[in-house]
TrEMBL record:
<dbReference type="InterPro" id="IPR036736">
    <property type="entry name" value="ACP-like_sf"/>
</dbReference>
<protein>
    <recommendedName>
        <fullName>Acyl carrier protein</fullName>
    </recommendedName>
</protein>
Amino acid sequence: MDIFLQNLADILDIDVKGLTTNTYLSDIEEWDSLSVISFVAMADIKYERKLNAPEVRKAQTVQELFDLVHGA
């Protein structure tokens, strides 16, 4: 989970200390349409997981993003 949080923080250009699995994406000012596309690309490159923007946009929390990437 720590590596995932760091990868997400890198995409958002924020401090990883501000992220937990319970963090709501709507509470992250930097979470926008560009971040969604960056997340899709990161999932493909780092986790070999093919996602699309609509399914990523449905996620409400960091945990839900993690579940998407790890197929939970």
